[in-house]
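Narrative of activities, Objective 1.

The group set out to show that a structural description can be obtained from nothing but a protein's sequence at a throughput compatible with the screening campaign. Below is one input-output pair from the validation batch, recorded exactly as produced.
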Amino acid sequence: MTSVAAYAAPSAKAPLERTTIERRAVGEFDVLIDIKFAGICHSDIHQARDGWGEGTFPMVPGHEIAGVVTEIGSGVTKFAVGDRVGVGCMVDSCRECDNCEAGLEQYCLKGSTSTYNGLDRNGAPTYGGYSTHIVVDENYTLRIPDGLSLDEAAPLLCAGITTYSPLKHWNAGPGKKVAVLGMGGLGHMGVKIAHALGAEVTVLSQSLRKQEDGLKLGADHYYATSDPKTFEELHGTFDIILSTVSAPLDFDAYLSLLKTDGALVNVGAPEEPVSVNLFSLIGGRKSLSGSGIGGIRETQEMLDFCAEHGFGAEIELIGASEINEAYERVLNSDVRYRFVIDAATI
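Output recorded for this entry:
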């Protein structure tokens, strides 16, 4: 065991503070990662504040991790010391169920092991990326291509794969009209990826405040959802609507914007239950769906795709002492578009 510096929430809703945590010794198939950068995801805030149910405290959030390998176990074959690597939302799974064998470890039938706020296979709590080092099994570690800077790559480990996976699954590409609902940490990546896949991309945002950004990032169109005319004008338009919003929506209104056989896919996860009139689905054979991150193979595919197309996340780099302020700014939609912690400041 090794003690490392970290930032943790000591209890639900408490401000995060500097502390030390124990990392396990490097096992046969483990890599020790010197964390360089860690992204701040809205889900960090949900969990640190018990928004999705009771959490395990003290909690060290962070599942958008980018760093460098500094030690490897004797059985490691995929990585070497000095490699640039990333860690996303999970650090283990059962490896035996149908989903794991299909490369869908995120949907492990026995439950995947979350990077933080989870329990590892020995029953010990997992601690995330708001720390200086982490030990991870090589099979749940990603290679960050040379074409991506580590700071801009970190948010791809959640925001990137969370939007890439459903866009690929629902066949976003040439000839498809994709709407990205919400222009935040997830949404801005949805715009970049959908554009790079060749789809015609529309941003649906509460206001036109970020219109210039959206068009720069690859959107073809930008509409304000606060304007009732938007719903009249766009009725029956989209093949896919990717909702990145973590607040309850009028799903019936958004389902009306889909074409026949269209899909409204949720990657934002509101804390409150939502309701939908089933006639909104029946009238047009529409789907209301959800999607969660991606498997390890698909996450590597996403990183390579982003490197090939020359983009990472749009980030604001902060010091660890600014984490609590950053949380409030995320809640106020005051970030363009992802906070990333410089781990050297922890």
